[in-house]
Design goal:
Blueprint lengths: L3 E12 L2 E7 L2 E3 L3 E5 L6 H8 L7 E6 L2 E2 L8 E5 L10 H12 L4 H10 L14 H13 L5 E5 L7 H13 L6 E6 L2 H7 L2 E6 L2 E7 L6 H12 L1
Parallel strand pairs: 4-9, 4-10, 7-8, 8-9
Antiparallel strand pairs: 1-2, 1-3, 1-5, 5-6, 10-11
Pfam families: ABC_tran
Protein name: Lantibiotic protection ABC transporter ATP-binding protein
Keywords: ATP-binding, Nucleotide-binding, Transport
Length: 231
Amino acid sequence: MEKNILETRNLSKKFGNQLVVNNISLQVKENCIYGLLGPNGAGKSTTLKMITGMLHKSSGDIIFNDHIWSRTDLEQIGALIELPPLYENLSARENLKVRTMLLGLPESRIDEVLQIVGLSNTGKKRSGKFSLGMKQRLGIAIALLNNPKLLILDEPTNGLDPLGIQELREMILGFPKQGITVILSSHNISEVEQVADYIGIICEGELKYQDIKDSQESLENLFLEVVKKEN
């Protein structure tokens, strides 16, 4: 039986009196790609920020690797949420070196992640001069530094050209073979359809659908059916 690396149980978040995430219960299998879909403002990013400790939950539980989540679990979780956290005056290698020093990781890890994301040959070029696709890849390299068991990517294809999207897709598809589970949050339905093993659909702060992806069914039709039902 496949093990869940991550579960949320009735996870909720309020900002003041506004309930933006309402009793979400995700089940993410180990070594899979879990596609998290939803309209803009549905609560996807807020949910992921709670899982990564960027936001405190209002109620509910987060279970990571069979135990209640604690901040020490961030050592096994990598994330790229919103914009890559770059020092734009530093090169790719220098950006990664800052993180290895902060995290107490061996410097040898820098070359490993640069190779994974295809940025080994950027030399001394400042990351502020990178294309958007290169910045996204450097953000993923930073997320991979601690060799995570769970990698969370929130809208990683935003602003990428078709070649950049294809390269990122191939990279994501390779992660489960390396023992890395991926949660991919996106509004790009066709991109999720090409990589995901499981699908979750959030609408108006609630999880409205969760199941293994059906290769015989159009994901766009499923998404529209779920979202229109709520509206």
